Amino acid sequence: MIYLNGQFMPLEEARVPVLDRGFIFGDGVYELIPVYSRRPFRLVEHLQRLEHSLRGIRLPNPHTPDEWSRLIQEVIARNPWEDQAVYLQVTRGVAKRDHAFPVDVQPTVFIMANPLSTPPRTQVERGVACITAADNRWLRCNIKSISLIANVLLRQLAADAGAIETILLRDGFLTEGSASNVFVVRDDMLLAPPQNHLILPGITYDVVLELAQSGGVPFEVREVSEFELRSAQEVMLTSSTKEILPVVEIDGRKVGAGRPGPVFERLYRLYQDFKAQVMRAPERPQALAG
């Protein structure tokens, strides 16, 4: 079951007019929220990022956080899977084709859920291969826009090469992956590119840094050069669906020893513990007032 413009319905019954600006221009934003044991992961942070993206494209938010939460929880409840990936999208709505913003047009709001697919055990245990490419996207990568053709083309480069992800470089420095954030380990220090207009502010990125701090893993948030990426002891990908994934090969060359390293293994355990203890923990009953 999905939600579209005020109605819940089967996906097969959903219809969007061809003049929707999401279809014509890619004029909209989206979020993807992982759900564990029917509990959306960091929903507040995802909704804050949605608000940031909507402001970035000058589109008023059609719902309050409480309204979004109710809609998302209802979509979760109407679907059969315990673990889900909830996708929500807001476009500027249906209007005559014109680049300028339409006036007095209602946005299109769409929410759907799919089974949550996380990396198979073999990828976690053996690591994955990536390639690199020049980051030729626009300069507002901190907006989670549905206009993803640049990311699609970059991700296809990896698919064509039999790799999992394309790691992006701009002016000699690491930005992110085509659909993930990227961490590097050098001299036993976890390095994270700073969140700015050139990368998406990843929710899992934030969790990894929080876990590194609480788990005693030294880290720095700073620009990471291409040389540091290519000579790293370890490289990791993070995203809502990849969680934390070790990279053992870049452009056909081994990363470090060519197998998942100790910093990844430490962070992966911390992440799985966090997921089990926080995300899958049953709700605690609230104490009654008085």
From TrEMBL:
Source organism's superkingdom?
Answer: Bacteria
Any stretches that span the bilayer, and where are they?
none
Q: GO MF annotations for this entry? A: transaminase activity
Q: Which UniProt keywords apply?
A: Aminotransferase, Pyridoxal phosphate, Transferase
Any Gene Ontology biological process: amino acid biosynthetic process
One Pfam family assigned to this protein is: Aminotran_4
Name the chain's protein: D-amino acid aminotransferase
